[in-house]
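Quick check before the chapter quiz. The format below is the same one you will see on the exam, so make sure you can read both the input and the output lines.
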Amino acid sequence: MDTSQQVTLIPRVRERSVAAPRQRRSIAEKRGIVEETLVEGASVARVARAHGINANQVFGWRRLYQAGRLGSASRP
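Here is the expected output.
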């Protein structure tokens, strides 16, 4: 019987989650998604979910669109 009080430490191995590759969207795609959210009664969250995007990202694109920095804006 081993009566040793010695503790052996086993190093933890961190598992990495495999993330999906980043999706790059063209300016035209971003503009189209933003324009979907500008329709009366449209929900930014629903539009974002339909395209597989976080709603915060769409809000950011909306700011760029309204500032005229997301290509040519069709609405002022």
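If your answer matched, good. Residues 20 and 52 are 12 Å apart (CA to CA).
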